[in-house]
Amino acid sequence: MRISVNGVELYYKKSGQGPPIVLLHGNGQDHTIFILLIKKLSANYTVYALDSRDHGKSSKVKHLDYMSKMKDVAEFIRELGIEKPVLYGFSDGGIIGLLLAINFPDILSKLIISGANTNPDGIKWFSITFLKTWYFFTRSNKVKMMLTQPDITDAELASIRTPTLVLAGHRDFIKEEHTVAMAKNIPGSELRILKGESHTSYVLNSTKIYDIIMSFLGGN
């Protein structure tokens, strides 16, 4: 399915019935990373899995920034009349989720983020080196965004009132101390560092995240 928001066309997959949950993928991916998760969640939830602008089947753009992507999701929720959805965002999707909770404090019922960072300093040095090398050769807008954005302050995190679960893998390329500090700054948030997991291992084409989501949402 497709919808026009903020001058771009977003592709999304809608599945299941029940309370709404929105799934947001990471940089360079699309909604298909959640195919196995969608099958499980759709037994009890109405699942909306989006392709972000310049990703998957959504519109291509010349410039990428997290604020525009966040506004896309806000308008998507409003246009479809989705009432207080849960949002799970992975990596870039988690950054978008944080920005959404900061700028639209009443739009979500709960927020789950994994592998997110509030600024580029939260990325481990070897991953930054890799990204800089990749950008040197490709001039990719997606990579440039990761190297220069986001810029979410501690005060902005402290303004979040949406019940929030912060996740990261123990072997994530996001610094663990960065994830811990992020959770501490979000009032009342829960934090889980997943032993043995990398940035993507429990998310991409996996159902490992399902039990974590259900536990946070209180089962069904």
Structural notes for this entry:
The chain has 220 residues and is an alpha/beta fold. It has a single domain (2-217), classed as Alpha/Beta hydrolase fold, catalytic domain (Rossmann fold, 3-Layer(aba) Sandwich). It has 8 helices and 8 strands; from the N terminus they run E-E-E-H-E-H-E-H-E-H-H-H-E-H-E-H. The protein has helices at 35-41, 66-79, 92-103, 125-138, 141-148, 154-158, 176-185, 208-217, and strands at residues 2-5, 8-15, 20-24, 46-51, 86-90, 110-114, 164-171, 190-198. The protein has an 8-stranded mixed sheet, sandwiched between helices. Strand 1 (2-5) and strand 2 (8-15) form a beta hairpin. Helix 2 (66-79) crosses helix 3 and helix 4 runs antiparallel to helix 5 (141-148). The protein starts with a strand and ends with a helix. The model has no long low-confidence stretch (mean pLDDT 97).
